[in-house]
Structure formats: structure tokens, C-alpha cells
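lol so apparently i was supposed to do this last week
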Amino acid sequence: MIEQIRTVAVVGAGYMGGGIAHSLAQSGFEVTIADVSAEVARTHLDRILGEAEQFEAQGLFAPGSAAEVRRNLRAADSIEDAVAGVDFIEEAVSEVPTVKHEVLARIAAAARPDAIIGSNTSTIPVSVMAVAVSRPERFLTVHWSNPAPFIPGIEIVAGADTDPAVIPLVKDMLTRAGRQSAQVADVPGFVLNRLQYVLLKEAMSIVEEGVATPGDVDTIVRSTFGFRLPFFGPFAIADMAGLDVYANGFATFEEAFGPRMAIPGLLRTTVDAGRHGTKNGAGLTRDYTPEEVEALVAYRSEAYARMAALLHDLGPSPVA
Ligand SMILES: NC(=O)c1ccc[n+]([C@@H]2O[C@H](COP(=O)([O-])OP(=O)(O)OC[C@H]3O[C@@H](n4cnc5c(N)ncnc54)[C@H](O)[C@@H]3O)[C@@H](O)[C@H]2O)c1
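anyway here it is w/ nicotinamide-adenine-dinucleotide bound
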């Protein structure tokens, strides 16, 4: 097993692969990209370097960041040339299982035996892709979000055969690239897209039922619960709102929409145990001391005030 990931290849240097290569190169990793041909890889290299210059000129990354990307990034003539000798390979080709299988098989055949291979798939389970690689113990999903140079969170999905020792190495690489990672089980859609798709589906149902226009749905999402989400996930938000309040809300929803909106078992048992969130120091996943609640409220107030100031400074989206 390698001690630390230092060298990386990204296979498929399009929208996501290019952003991943940019992020890792900017963080000091030696990165080689490959695509369908040497020419396409070189075109992507030029694009990534141009974007790095543009990001720096806009003040989005520190002075010198584009030079760091240029220093650390190169384009290979082939997949085999890119992956030979590197510690970690990220596959980011099209979301088509047959294409992933063909590319992953080529990567596995040319990579070092101890190299770790990750896939950036958005939805395909590791179990479906792992059949293509010769060493499934070194294979996992490392799912970046769009746009990769800016979104900090990464989903890590280990398959049934993934060696658990691979996970801390990948997490360490992501931490050194300034990223936060979370490990989730090997199910289609993982966590990010499962939640995101449910939101989109419900938003579309709301529009189809004539409850609100798309514009008004967007305004509500951005300016109410979406406003909280950079700071808190749904569990912390429910703890702060009151778990008993949520339980009563689910009763109303179940009456209106049926079993699909019934109170979840986890919430029912938590409330039945007398746990109502921060208001009585007993939350869904943890207890809170009075000092912790005070600190949480102070953090929340500052976070929301600064978020409001940021949105005021930045102004609305140009296509809002
Ligand atoms: N676009 C998103 O918002 C997003 C977000 C997260 C994850 N993803 C996932 O990332 C992966 C890539 O998506 P994308 O949006 O960057 O697509 P993209 O079309 O921009 O890039 C895919 C790249 O793979 C290359 N490619 C295709 N077949 C190849 C082959 N046989 N050998 C070498 N290179 C090949 C293409 O030439 C292209 O450059 C997909 O699995 C997708 O589901 C996409």
C-alpha cells in the first residue's frame, strides 16, 4: 500500500475531469490528464490553463495559483501513458456504463498494482463498475460536484471489495486539496443526488399542481431553507427548529399526501423518547449542553448575517 497520494491521472478531462485536474494541480499534486486522443487531451489542457488564468485574474484564487496549475499539469498521449506510474487515477469519462467499463479496464491494465482507482460517476454503483477492474480492492467512487474547482464536498463510495485502508489515503488527498469528504454506502445515486433529485421532483410537482410558479419556488428555496444549508444539514436544522414541531408537521403532511409523507421512524422514536432538539438539549443524533446551544445560536446568527451581506454585495444571479 502506498503511504500517501502524490501523483494523479485524470482520465476524461471534460467538464468534471478538467475541474478535478485543476483543483488537484493547484493544490500541488502532479496531475496528468488523458482523453479520447492526444489532441483532445491537449485541447483540454489549454482550456484548463486558460480557466486557471481567468480565475486568478478575477481574484477567485490566490496570486500564483495559475502558475501552480501550469507547473503541475500535463497532457498525456494516451490513457496508458497517463496512468502508468501514478498513485491515484480518477476516471471522469461519460456516464455510460459500457464506456466506463472499457476505460476502467484499460486504466487497470496499465496502472501500477498498488495504484488506487476512483470513478467520478454520479449514479452508477461501485458494484456495477468494479467488474471492469483487475483489483477491485483498489477501486472506489470519488464523486466531485460541479463546478469542481469551487464545490468543496466529495462523496466517497466503497464497494464490497474495496480495501478499507484505501479510504484514509483518498481522504488525506482530498483534505490536502482543501476538500471535505463523506463516505456513503454503495447504492444508486448515493446521498447527494438522492436528496437533490427529491427536491427537484417535489419542486416540479408543486409547479404542475399550480401551487407556485418556478420563479416563486426558486425564491422560496434560495431565501428560506436554502439560506441555511451552507452552515447546517437537515439533522441540525431539525434539532434547532424543534423535533416535536417536525413530528406535528409530518402528521399534517401524511393526512394531505399519504404514507409517502408519513413521519419517519427515526423522528417518531426520538420524539417518543422525549427528545425535542436544542430546546431540551436532546437532539436527533446528539445531546447539547446549555453552553453548546448558546454557542450554536451565536454562530447561526453570525452566519446568517454574513450570508445576507454576501448576497447583498454579490447581487442576484444575472439570470434570476
Ligand atoms: N456534469 C456534472 O454536473 C457532473 C457532476 C458530478 C459528476 N459527474 C460525472 O462526471 C463524469 C464526467 O461528466 P462530465 O460532465 O465531465 O462529462 P463531459 O462530457 O464534459 O466529459 C467527459 C470526457 O470524457 C471523455 N471521454 C469519453 N469517452 C472516453 C474514452 N473512451 N476514453 C477517454 N476519454 C473519454 C470525453 O471526450 C470528455 O472529454 C460522468 O460520470 C458524470 O456523471 C458529472
